[in-house]
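Model: You mentioned two targets. I'll fold them one after the other.
Researcher: Yes, keep them separate.
Model: Target one:
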Amino acid sequence: MSGDHAIPTIGITLPARATDSAERQRVERNAAKYRLALEHYGALVIEIRPGDGLAVLDTVDGVVLSGGGDLDPRHYSRKPHPKTGPPDAPRDELELSVARAASGRAMPILGICRGAQMLGVALGGQLVQDVDSELPESEEHSASAGGRAARHWVELAPDSRLAAIMRSRRVRVNSYHHQANSQLGPGVIRAAWSRDGVTEAIEGGGPGFALGVQWHPERMWRQAPRQRRLFAAFVDACRAIRRGGQG
């Protein structure tokens, strides 16, 4: 690890750099949202992309598994659903290896949307591949028109790390997803859910910070105090790791 002892270094996982200019700009705009939120709370942010080896974890104090497309269902022993998007194999392999290695080191992990699903699969869980068709009684979790976000309330498990961070049992979130965590791996807990029963957040077992949220706090933190607390808590956990404490 490098840099000032009080400044944690956080790696954000991203896809390989696109050759298409429009796609590259879209990914960079999204990455900038994570970067701004983390830097606001004092972190130094670096990118982790396909092709980077696990040695990159020696240079960071925590990892953000970012949002994006669908994870290949073969990673949780399922055949693709008709509505499952095409996989990004290099990114899948990168994030699964990073998530498992970081978890093995008790390094703080924050998964956001796809990242929450990736964390769940890395820790032995499975996914609902299409909420609308597999859970037909569900409320709106993804709005397709013009990139508009669905919005709904989520309930937080009272004894969860997430509830302690948010200082609430109920929060309103944005929602862009059509997949979600379903069966959870050993020791993983369901930290939040929507009123239709869809899992909205998970936490790894043990005292370390391993949290995945199905919404996009990086798009809400300026206006929503509770979402700011999520980034502040994650950066603090990374800072504690840098100082040799417990995340």
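Model: Target two:
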Amino acid sequence: MISKAGSGHTGGSMSVMDILVALYYGEHVNSAARGAFGEGKEEDKDYIVLSKGHAVPAQYAILADLGYFDRSELDHLRQVNSMLQGHPCSKTPGITLATGSLGQGISAAHGLAMSLKLDKKPNKVFVALGDGELQEGIVWEAVMSAAHHMTDNLIAFVDNNGLQIDGPCKKVMSVKPIQEKFESFGWYVIKVTDGHDYEQLMSAIGKARRETRRPTCIWCETVKGKGVPFAEGKVEYHGVALSDEELKVAEEELGKV
């Protein structure tokens, strides 16, 4: 999708892919969130927000697979008048909130979670952030507010791949210690040592759903460009589309998994 468009964010889309698969297809998320064919009423579904909006190609691939729109739409990423823009748009079927300006997604997700609690609804709101995104002050305003209001239906994932557009997070501006920061604000934190291991991800989601009176952060160690050896852990593939030659190698490598 990204390669055909000649534009997009390959590395971060691949690092968050397994987290999104666990959410959309996992047993611990309300089945109505899984797509147009999901069981249950629309109003009963859990919500999934991609705060690191530049990684939306990963979400588009899943939404197409689940039947929100025809797979042919994937051929038109980032084109004028396409329903699949470079960042999530609420006009796109299956997208909960428009995001893109980093840090704002968790604030909007917290607002949604609060409204659900005020309406006494059981829905959960899952939001995925990048680790570089934690450098934004607006993130910590939302984190503080969620703890204060005991928004226990808010579950945040941190896609901790250690890289951002300008280089390693630790060199640009360290966001560590992640766990201690969230805990100091009053959050329950679950560490996932391999954010590409579905057993660990599903176990963490199950624990988070059972937590009461405080929001949960699921901190996942991930690999940028996961699944393609020449791109793994390389900041150079943050916002670069693969060439035709690279794409051929990438597809071969992914086909082996």
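Researcher: Noted. Anything on target two?
Model: The domain at 2-255 is CATH 3.40.50.970 (Rossmann fold).
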